[in-house]
Design goal:
This protein has about 160 residues and is α+β, with helices and mostly antiparallel strands. It is built from five helices and six strands.
Length: about 160
């Protein structure tokens, strides 16, 4: 079964590729929103909540930080469309610091500056080191699916400062 829903712009799309509108955004071309009336037109609060719960069960979700970051990656960090913005890199670091499982979002995008000055994509495994714990010991952390070796977290921060 392929669940199709009405979007805020009057078109129809799959539930898994649609998002709930936020307080300040009912329509978004990049992150298409469900028509709010799809789940608010019930006669009672229970009907409305059941409609929203059903939409969640078939794949509609709230727009979160990872969806917004993925949109930025697609818009600015591909081979055909590369536009480095320092505030994006800060946002990427914050996302992975908050949830390390989101590191896999970056595997197909040009986010690492290489020694030759060009930008590269993570391919196999990235190790980045940062000072942690006592006595200044360094602890290695891994980003999955990346071949680029980042000499240290400080290096990444230097790119964006």
């Amino acid at each position: 079964m392929l669940p199709i829903i009405r979007r805020s712009d009057g078109t129809y799309g799959t539930a898994k590729d649609s998002f709930f509108p936020s307080e300040d955004t009912d329509h978004d071309e990049v992150l298409p929103r469900v028509d709010r009336t799809v789940y608010t037109s019930g006669k009672s609060k229970t009907q409305q909540q059941n409609a929203k719960t059903f939409l969640e069960e078939i794949g509609v979700r709230e727009v979160g930080e990872s969806e917004q970051v993925e949109t930025l990656l697609e818009q600015r960090y591909t081979n055909t469309n590369f536009k480095l913005m320092k505030q994006d890199l800060k946002r990427f670091i914050a996302l992975v610091d908050k949830d390390p499982t989101k590191a896999s979002l970056f595997t197909s995008y040009f986010i690492f500056e290489l020694k030759d000055g060009k930008w590269g994509m993570p391919k196999q495994e990235v190790h980045h080191e940062r000072r942690r714990g006592h006595r200044g010991r360094r602890r290695k952390e891994q980003w999955p699916n990346s071949a680029v070796r980042v000499p240290g977290r400080v290096r990444v921060r230097q790119i964006i400062s």
